[in-house]
Design a protein that fits this description.
Helix content is 30%, strand content 23%. The chain has 568 residues and is an alpha/beta fold. The chain is globular, with a radius of gyration of 24 Å. It starts with 7 loop residues before the first helix and ends in a 13-residue tail after the last helix. The structure holds 5'-O-[(S)-butoxy(hydroxy)phosphoryl]adenosine (WT7). The site of 5'-O-[(S)-butoxy(hydroxy)phosphoryl]adenosine (WT7) has 22 residues, from α10, β14, β21 and β22.
Length: 568
């Protein structure tokens, strides 16, 4: 059974964000704090002993925390940070695997009024450095296993005053300025004074990659919880007795908006599995915890498809009630397949780091059109715009730029210290998503592609610029151009085109070395899956490398206008 809520049409007709304000008992002007809302408030509602988090890791370790446990842990961490001298508005980076401390520190940082900067723990030192430098991060909370990456760059980050390690490390192993904080050994703080954060107080700083320049910090505020609460309730259809699993890592926005804030603001039990992908492990996890609502991503779904229908039959997955997907195009085959093997179809959702919450979705109870992303969430005004006039295309089926009228609570407030880039995202009062789509005669959006060179590999955005810059740091690389190539599972993967400096010779060893160089510096996601050595790269007459030409070649597309091409 799906959706006990009124229908999409009714909710859209009567929509106001005050619905969320009322349900969260928020009066405009009051203090509002995501950390408090996700823990203390739930306890006050009589759910102190309800499980908030089931955690399991690869080695089999299991832990569980009630809402009272997460409330106390948030207090304890918040008090510790405050006692160290970390102030409201400081940026505190979370650089951890998906261990419980990640989720608990998230609450603690917000409760004491600092800003959470979550970063994916697989990031290499270069990716970490540019983001910490840009945010002028004051503290990093990390694990012993990631400490070497932080140590490598610390001397170049004068603003980074605190490195806090949350798991076992001998005090004798600590370097000056490194602090051990073990939640298990800390005295629980029962009473904690929540920072007086307001609706517009900065809460989160998520980094996202663009085509040019370094990654941008997306600024979110505490009021975003209104969007996350209501979309979780209506789109993910979470109810009190659900057992929810969001497979995303909180280093990315799905893992915070819907892997922490959404479920906990509703007081719903969620599960975290801190492992890489394995079809067996995932099915076993669903079976063991009797997961009812599952929010995942197309690449994972395609990998499950590849593991085969027979495997599904070895597990009891009958607890599943509702499935949703995000991050990249969800192909119709995957929707149909899930309907066949799980008895439930994945509901696609479209949104971005910048939008903070779901914008377009196959709403529960609404007819799913496999291959379509669905319709705008109630209260969201969307359109596809003509790329020349930036006015809505009225004719159904015609491609245009996906745009939204700003004003929903979780919309980014700016790019961190880059007001100019932020302003560029708006034309004629529309926020431009940077994606292209068409809308059919029933208002369903059909995704076409991104409107820039950013590579979406397995649901993760990779900036070709970042990879190209990192490649140039390799001693053998003269010039580089990065684009994507097709991939069966990840849809697209990174491909690097390289010219070598004199004295270096091409070969599989060098190819492998370059791949690993990027993996370590940036991340496994940014690592080129193929390196092609070239005599020269296609350039415009003014000397700009034309990625477009290489991209077209990889995808077997028309190259288009190359009249400005130099060496052709
Ligand atoms: C970009 C945003 C917020 C979710 C995680 C990604 C692509 C997102 C879909 C979808 C096709 C999608 C877009 C978008 N994308 N959802 N359902 N179908 N493409 O957040 O890292 O900010 O990436 O992911 O290109 O702009 P993000």
């Amino acid at each position: 059974m799906l959706s006990e809520h009124p229908s999409y049409e009714e909710l859209t007709r009567d929509f106001s964000w005050s619905i969320a304000e009322k349900e969260l008992e928020y009066t405009p002007g009051d203090i509002i704090n995501i950390g408090w809302h996700c823990s203390d408030r739930i306890c006050q509602k009589g759910k102190a002993d309800k499980i908030a988090l089931y955690y399991e890791e690869f080695g089999g370790t299991r832990k569980q925390y009630t809402f009272n446990d997460i409330r106390l842990a948030g207090n304890t961490i918040g008090a510790f940070l405050r006692s160290q001298g970390i102030a409201e508005g400081d940026r505190v980076c979370l650089f951890m695997d998906r261990i419980p401390e990640l989720y608990l520190s998230f609450l603690g940082i917000l409760k004491m009024g600092a800003i959470v900067q979550p970063l994916f723990s697989a990031f290499g030192d270069e990716s970490l450095f540019v983001r910490l430098e840009n945010a002028e991060t004051r503290a990093v909370i990390t694990q012993k296993k990631h400490l070497s990456k932080v140590r490598k760059i610390r001397a170049s980050l004068p603003g980074l005053e605190y490195v806090i390690i949350v798991d076992s490390i001998k005090p004798s192993e600590l370097k000056p300025g490194e602090i051990l904080f073990s939640l298990e050994n800390a005295e629980p703080v029962e009473k904690f004074e929540i920072a007086p954060t307001r609706a517009e107080t900065h809460s989160l700083l998520h980094y996202t990659s663009g085509t040019t320049g370094q990654p941008k910090g997306v600024k979110h505020v505490h009021y975003s919880i209104m969007s996350q609460y209501l979309t979780t309730k209506w789109v993910l259809d979470l109810r009190d007795d659900d057992i929810y699993w969001c497979t995303a890592d909180p280093g990315w926005v799905t893992g915070t908006s819907y892997g922490i804030i959404g479920p906990w603001s509703l007081g719903v039990t969620q599960c975290v599995l801190d492992t890489g992908f394995s079809a067996q492990a995932w099915y076993r996890f669903i079976e063991n915890y009797k997961i009812t609502v599952w929010y995942s991503a197309p690449t994972a779904i395609r990998s499950l498809m590849k593991a085969g229908d027979e495997l599904v039959k070895e597990f009891d997955l009958s607890s599943l009630r509702h499935l949703a997907s995000v991050g990249e195009p969800l192909n119709s085959e995957a929707v149909i397949w899930s309907g066949r093997v799980f008895g439930k179809q994945f509901h696609d959702t479209f949104w971005q780091t910048e939008t903070g919450s779901i914008m377009i979705t196959n709403f529960p109870g609404m007819k799913i059109k496999p291959g379509s992303m669905g319709k705008t969430f109630p209260g969201i005004t969307g359109a596809v715009l003509d790329p020349v006039t930036y006015t809505p295309i009225e004719e159904p089926g015609n491609a245009g730029l996906i745009a939204f009228r700003p004003g929903w609570p979780a919309m980014m407030r700016t790019y961190w210290r880059n007001e100019e880039k932020y302003r560029e995202k708006f034309v004629n009062g529309w926020y431009l998503s940077g994606d292209r789509s068409s809308i059919d005669n029933e208002g369903y959006y059909w995704f076409i592609g991104r409107d820039d060179d950013v590579i979406n590999t397995g649901g993760h955005l990779v900036s070709p610029f970042e990879v190209e810059s990192a490649l140039l740091e390799h001693p053998a690389v003269g010039e580089s151009a990065v684009t994507s190539k097709p991939d069966e599972i990840n849809m697209e993967v990174v491909k690097a085109f390289i010219t070598l400096k004199p004295g270096f010779t091409t070969g599989p060893d060098l190819e492998l070395e370059i791949m690993n160089f990027i993996r370590k510096k940036l991340s496994p996601l940014a690592m080129p899956q193929a390196v092609e050595f070239m005599e020269s790269l296609p350039k415009t007459r003014s000397g700009k490398i034309m990625r477009r030409v290489l991209h077209a070649r990889e995808w077997g597309e028309e190259i288009g206008d190359i009249s400005t091409l130099e060496n052709d």
